[in-house]
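Worked Example 4.2. Consider the chain below.
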Amino acid sequence: MRKQRLRQVYVLLRQWLHRTFVTVVLSSVRFLMHLWIRNRKKAGPSKRRKKDLQTMKVMGVLEELLANTDQLKNDRTKGATPVYTSAGQHVIDAFVSQRPRQQESDYYIFVAQAWVEELERNELRTLLIWVMLLSGIFMGIVTFIQLWILLEAWDVE
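Applying the procedure from the previous section yields the following structure tokens:
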């Protein structure tokens, strides 16, 4: 009975770690795509082509991984395997939404743009939240250090 319970805990922990890893990797790739797409508009033709090739390569790998796990079919519709993370759902939704453009040469660019579209809308809000969060952490550290110094000085006397 105990072995079976430990096995269940192990399986749950492994699933949680897998989902966490997938979320972190997909979120990181999504942010990288966001930077490439945003800087693509400012770049010259040679840099733009280089970024486009990188984007197409990464999105092609993502599509291949999703197809191998049966989360995305070859006709770019949702697969039979359910997606448990919102990060995975975002990338699949991007592929499905751009399905009508799959014959175009810049298909993966359109998929990447659809995938990071929400990040572009929320960029300012996210920036403000991070600034406030980091400022709060900084102020907390400074306050803690000042209290520590004050308590140390109080103990000495």
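The helical segments are 2-40, 45-68, 86-97, 107-121, 123-156. The mean pLDDT is 83. Compare this with Example 4.1 before moving on.
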